[in-house]
Amino acid sequence: MKRAKLVPLHALCLVALTALWGVSASAQAQSPPATNPSVSTPMGDMHKGGAGVADMKASMMMGMEEMQRMPMTGNTDKDFAMMMKIHHQQALNMAEMELKNGKSPEMKAMAKQIIAAQKKEIAQFDNWLAKQK
Q1: Does residue 22 register a pLDDT over 80?
Q2: Which of 13, 45, 83, 101 has CB atoms 3.0–4.6 Å from 51's, for a disulfide?
């Protein structure tokens, strides 16, 4: 893809991530601290805890918090790759929870597709980021 086409895509993704950050910050300011014990678990281990919507929501919130804490480099490409990697990891965690606890064959099939796609894209981000050091 030509660079001219990628810049608007990067900008659009960063706008979406910034909007998510704003919603998350607003929600955190209005809600009491989480009491779910899985919230203190590292994001990658989130799917190993209990089942249910609370764990999925906790995983999503942890990823958003991780993006908020991430120091921005000022390099749009690098910041995009780092934030999208976190975002994709959230999707991977939630899809693994669906496989473990979901009942719908259709949703389980979709979760398998998401896992495959997200793992591939996380690897692409990792490869690109490794070249930036």
Answers
A1: no
A2: 101
